[in-house]
Design goal:
- The chain has 14 helices and twelve strands.
- It is of the alpha+beta class and about 475 residues long.
- It is elongated.
- The N terminus is likely disordered.
């Protein structure tokens, strides 16, 4: 028997059930196909039951408590299916492995608790979702995960928007299978409860995410204050050295060879000033509001970094090369140029003067996803320089640390470059590290998330590796 529309516009939704559905007196709800509690098979359009299993009079309306209990029961039954749909939609949108959306079995198993919390709130809204409820703990756990993965607030809000769409679509289908008339006011009340529950859980996730982000910002500000004190000290030393050497040069009684020595002091400290100011400028660009970030293709950012260091490379006799097969994906110009300029500058400063050919090469590939990491663009700066002693490698990315501070006296620096690189890429969900091949030299690398579908399509359409490279000389 098909659904029969009632004429009463003010209240009504429908009487009867769809063909192939039957009510279940044990649960106070309908069941799709199959056998009822009494063993009946097939549609029973004329019989329905209330929450206590008693026969309901034909045409009697379903009351709000019974409607909420029915929808909540269906929601609980389908929670695993709904979580799977949610996972699939998140994976499709951000282009990362589904294993990384909910990366542990424990988290994946606990995500259905979010659905449980929504169902419980719909059934009994007087039991508020507060900080002590398990569903809030799981929502906060999700916020911590997304913070660690480098997601932004918009991506989290979008995730919950997709969850809401999935739940509403499911409940709309479920409401169609209920044989009793459903008052519009009660149906809207259930919809309101669902919306409130999703919003409360989303607030729990976002609040924890923003707390972690605020703590990270506070930590970065503390580092920046320490950096400012160090830079101020460095600048003061450079300026004092230049001023003192300039005063001495004004004295007429110094010999020519002595004057050249002080001129060298001025040039060296002026170069130090230039290096510190360049770091400050790059760092300020990376901390700008994300709405003002400038995205460029990776090859363009790499060539710009090399152009900035051309004079330094020429002075040291170092050939800086950019691989022809860099993937043409969009990157934040300030971030990538800052990282590359620090890495390439170190490759130039610590080149091996005993070698006839000295070089620094920039390479990049898109890697993953696998069980360890998401799909990401990995950028490597390789050189055939003097390398780094094994006992000093673990400390390379620490603030103020200089691996060659005692052995290479003509290389200026504050020991902050590598720590700035690591902090910058980690703040957007990336990572930075160093590799040391068996032969002499070093490889300094950083990786950035590549979640956009357009980036992945660009790498698939890019030309095959040619083996050639462009020179920075």
């Amino acid at each position: 028997m098909g659904a029969v529309r009632r004429r009463d516009r003010r209240r009504t939704v429908r009487v009867g059930v769809r063909r192939g559905h039957c009510p279940d007196p044990r649960a106070g709800r309908t069941r799709r196909g199959g056998v009822t509690a009494a063993g009946w098979r097939g549609p029973l359009a004329a019989i329905s039951f209330d929450a206590d299993g008693a026969p309901r009079k034909e045409g009697a309306q379903l009351q709000l408590p019974e409607l909420a209990a029915t929808l909540a029961g269906d929601l609980r039954t389908a929670k695993q299916e709904l979580v799977t749909q949610w996972l699939d939609r998140i994976s499709a949108r951000v282009a990362i492995s589904s294993k990384k959306v909910f990366p542990t079995h424990q988290l994946l198993n606990h995500v259905p608790l979010l659905i449980e919390g929504i169902a419980a709130y719909m059934k009994r809204p007087e039991r508020d979702i507060d900080s002590r409820s398990p569903v809030v703990a799981k929502a906060m756990e999700l916020g911590a995960l997304r913070h660690a993965q480098g997601f932004d607030a918009y991506e989290i809000l979008k995730e919950y928007e997709m969850l809401g769409e999935i739940i509403f679509d499911f409940l709309a289908d479920t409401a169609d299978t209920i044989p009793e008339p459903i008052p519009r006011r009660d149906l809207l009340a259930c919809w309101q409860r669902i919306s409130q529950a999703i919003e409360l859980i989303r607030q729990a996730t976002m609040s924890h995410f923003l707390r972690l982000s605020a703590a990270q910002v506070n930590e970065r500000e503390n580092r920046l204050r320490r950096f400012n004190r160090t830079v101020a000290h460095e600048l003061k030393n450079n300026v004092n050295a230049i001023a003192n050497a300039s005063e001495i040069l004004n004295e007429k009684w110094y010999e020519e060879n002595e004057r050249k020595e002080f001129e060298g002091i001025i040039a060296k400290n002026a170069e130090g000033l230039k290096h510190v100011l360049a770091n400050l400028e790059s760092l300020s660009r990376t901390q700008a509001d994300s709405r003002h970030c400038r995205n460029v293709l990776l090859p363009e950012a790499a060539n710009e970094a090399v152009r900035e260091l051309q004079e330094a490379a020429k002075a040291k006799g170092v050939n800086v090369r950019v691989a022809d097969d860099l993937p043409p994906i969009e990157v934040d110009a300030a971030t990538v140029e800052l990282c590359l300029m620090n890495y390439v500058s170190n490759g130039i400063k610590y080149s091996d003067s005993s070698k006839g050919e000295r070089w620094v090469a920039i390479e990049a590939t898109v890697e993953g996803p696998d069980t360890e990491k998401d799909r990401e663009v990995v950028i490597r700066v390789c050189d055939n320089g003097i390398g780094v002693p094994a006992e000093k490698r673990e400390q390379l990315f620490q603030e103020f640390y200089r691996a060659h501070g005692d052995t290479v006296t003509d290389a200026d620096g504050t020991g902050l470059g590598l720590s700035i690189v690591r902090e910058t890429v980690e703040s957007i969900g990336g990572r930075a590290w160093a590799e040391f091949p068996d032969q002499m030299g070093s490889v300094f690398a950083f990786a950035l998330p590549a979640r956009r579908e357009s980036d992945l399509r660009a790498t698939e359409d890019s030309p095959e590796e040619s083996g050639d490279s462009r020179s920075g000389d």
